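Appendix B. Raw example, untouched.
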Amino acid sequence: MGSTLRGTACFLLMLLFVAASVCGAADKTGVVLLHGKDGVPSNVSGVADALKKNGFVVITPEMPFSRNRQFDKSYEDCVPEIDRAVALLRNQGAKTIFIGGHSLGASIALYYGTKTIVDGILAIAPGGNTGQLGDRMQVELERARKMAAEGKGDEIGVFDDYNQGMRRTRRTTARIYLSYQDPDGPSVIPKNAAALKPGTALLWVVGTKDPMYRRGASFAFDKAPPNPRNKYVVVEAGHMETPFDTGAIREIVAWVKSF
């Protein structure tokens, strides 16, 4: 009789353990964090490590615009790459999903939020196509458009580009180049902020030493669909330092925790 009771008790404890494990998996929060232009995943490790320490599941994929890949896919083609990361998060039990990014990664995160419903977007020191380009970039755009119009959109070319004011050359196709640069294309930050799926919350974090700071909340953040969780945060940091700034990290972790 005693052994039967002990066996029953052990069985019930096992059921409770399994139930607790299932509930824990169901309660997981997943975050996809994207690096910026010419970057690598370690460029967002400050935020990523802090989120992991707080129990969140984090994936930091290397994107087509990384230092190594050098624009091997278009702006739009970043969406299926993020889809794969989200699928991995869901396979690990994540039910609440955030897409975040730094600089161009933030721009891509915003674009993803126009295509897929997620719980929130983390725009960390956003950068990329703002829809306002200088004269030199206009020349490069016209050259790329001409190639595309002549049926040479998938031919490799060398194009000027700028990253935080520093000139770079890109060896990629005209079609891919235009996807990141064309102000009539998919990559314009204010347009994408305004087109976020209803119900998607937006956290915008910018440093006072970042050129984007001068544009203020009205530039893009205020254009996002109203959401009581939307938050605009200013920290004392530069563009590259923001993903490692203690104040920014504290705000990001607290915001994700609030869901």
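End of appendix B.
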